Structures are given as C-alpha cells and as structure tokens.
C-alpha cells in the first residue's frame, strides 16, 4: 500500500481526472486521509471559537434572570433594546470583514476579532447602568460580526461540495452546545454572587470574557489559513487537495481570478435575486431562534420553575437541536440535494409554533415544554442547509466570500426582529411572538421552493447551451438542487 509521500504526479493526475464517485480504492483512501487531517486541525478550533462567540452574545438572557435587570434598573423595553442594538453593527460589518479576511491571513484577522469581543464581554460585567450596557452590546456586535461568515467561508475552501454541510453541522452544533452549556455555566457562576462585591450576573460576563481572551491569544499560531499554505499537509497532499477542489467547482487557470478582488463580484451579489431568497430562508432561523434563545429561560420560569431550574431546563432543548442538526446534515450530504432538507425541518418547527399558539398558558406546563423542543429541533438545521446550498452553487472564491457575508449579514438583521418578539408584557401567552415566527417560517418554506425552481431553470439552460457536445468548463458546472 503506497503512502501519501509515494504519490507522484501521475497519481495526482489520476485524482484530477476521475470523478469522486468513481475513484479507485487507493485514491479514495488517500483523500480520506487528507480530509481527516484537515478535520483534526480545523474543526475543533472553529467549534471552540463558535462556542465562545455564542456564549458571549446570548448569555445576557441568563444574566437577566440572575439579577441584571434589577441591578441596572432596567425599565420597560430597555432589555429588548439592549438585545436589538447588537445586530445593527453585527450585520453592517460582515461584508467588510470577509473582504479583510481575504486580504489578511484569516488566522490573524479572526484572532483580532476574538480578542476584541472577549475584551468587550469582560467589560460588560462592570457596567453601571443602561447606557453602559447599550455601549458594550454595540461594541460586541461590531467585534463578533465577522466570525460566522469567516468560518463558513473557511470551511467552503477546504471541503468538497458534498462534504461541506456535514462539516458545517459539526461546527454549528457548537451553538447548540453553547446554548445548553450557557444554562449550566450560568447556574454555577450565579453562585459567585457577592464575590468581590459583584453580583452573580456580572461574573457570568467577566469569566466568559476572560476565557475568550485567553483562547484568542493563541489563535494566530494554530488556525490554518488555506489549503495552499497548510504546513500540516505535505506538498503532494496540498496539490491533491487544491486540484480536487478546482475540479469540484469547475475552476481552471493560474488561480489569479480566485485571489484578486474584483468589483464585479460585489455587483453580481447585490443584483442576484437568489441571495435575497436565501436571506428569507435564513430569517426562518434567525428571527425565530434569536427570539427563542433570549426568551426561553423566561418562558420556562413562567411555567412555575425557579430561576436555577429554568436555566437547567434549557439544556435538553439545545441538545435536541444539536442532534437533529448533525444527523440531518450527514443525511443531506449523502443525498446530494438541499431543498427538501430545508422544507422538512421548517415544517417541524412550524408545527411547534402552531401548538404553542393553540394551547393556553401556563395551564399545561408539560405540553408547553414539550412543544419548545420543536423550535430548535426544526429551526437549527435549515440554516446550515441554506449556507451549504449557497456555497455549493457559487464556484468563484471571491463571490462566495462576499455572498456568504451578505446573506449572513442580512439574515442576522432578523435578530433585531427576534429580540423584540417576546416582550415581558406579552407573557405568558406571547401571541405576537409565536404568530410572527409562524409566518416567517412559512415564508422561508415558500422561498426555498422558489429558489429550487430558479436553480432547475438555470440547469436546464446550461444543458441546452451545452447540447452540441462542446461544453465549456463553466457549462459543466451544475447547480445543486
């Protein structure tokens, strides 16, 4: 059995010309070894960073029921405003951030972002009033804005079209872990109330912020930047990987176009109706899940549980979301199709909102809690399918980086809506919140079906154009449905 070091140019040429589904056993084993090396180096780092990112943006929901509202003397809708202001800079700076990511070394730019948001989170633990809370939330949104689109883009440049969603699901599942762990962590840290003369909710921010800063300090040394510069791969492995990805996305040439910014990519993204359909699909997740994440501890507490038990009872909800996300994503990549796996989970989530609207609250606490499982269980998986679908169907590196940033940026504006859907005055029924989430989920399903039709039409046009048997490489590219 030959090793990677024994692979010569002839082996590389064989890999380049054979379709992945037709690879011989030795070639397939070689690629599997390379992918496994990438997995071990890239995925754990991105998962850890996303755990800290999600903890730092959403722990305000735990801090709220741990005494923050009383200590900062928040009144009326001030808490919801503090949630909302995070999303404006978060959405605004995502495209510029991905442009910088392509210009700088990704490891350095991401390290800068992590250090920045960790510092802001630590300072959020010592704010004295509402104005200080607003200021830190704005700076936190600015600092965190680029991470998710950067991570999504990094995964797209390392993996093939029908590997990327599985990898995204493992990465994104860390959000579910963070959401679950947030409740456990807040439960433990809240017991530090009085230490150093500070409330327990302040220690939630301070300790999680310090941990983020510690992780950020070592990031530039351990996060790989690109397949072309990966030192943990041999020269032949880098060649195999690069040529495999070029073949997968129908690319050729010296790579200059892939690595030089051109304004045509930005113009093409801004005028592309497919991106706006993807944004609506994204809103099915962001509007509903942000509202859910920020409010679910309060919803559970209103069912008659203590603050501590409400924190703990959020854990199973997010673990269920993690299980459905990973399981369905593996299935998606094997099926090599996307649209049914957006519609299906969203229908699951839609049933949850119908049920929550149909029953009186808090008369049936057990039933209410059971229906809450359908929201993360059906709402988390479609986000990854949407991003994988967009990545699969955007072969140009620069356009993909910008397209992902635009969709994620505009999609996360849904957080400004979601964070205001469940005001305290609407407890315990939350008719407005559940109704809007129901409508948004239905719109996401409709947009998925329209986008599927657009890609079918484009594939049909390419078959007609290539009907003379002399298709160009671009014509050989087929959109994933």
From TrEMBL:
Compartments, as annotated in UniProt: Membrane
Gene3D superfamilies listed in its UniProt record: MFS general substrate transporter like domains (1.20.1250.20)
Domain of life: Eukaryota
Keyword Lipid metabolism: no
Membrane topology label: Multi-pass membrane protein
Keyword line: Membrane, Transmembrane, Transmembrane helix, Transport
All copies of domain Major facilitator superfamily (MFS) profile, residue ranges: 42-459
Region (Disordered): 1-24
Residue stretches spanning the membrane: 42-60, 80-101, 108-127, 139-158, 170-189, 201-223, 273-292, 312-332, 339-359, 371-390, 402-419, 431-455
UniProt KW Transmembrane helix keyword: yes
Main location as per UniProt: membrane
Identification of the protein by name: Major facilitator superfamily domain-containing protein
Organism of origin: Aspergillus keveii
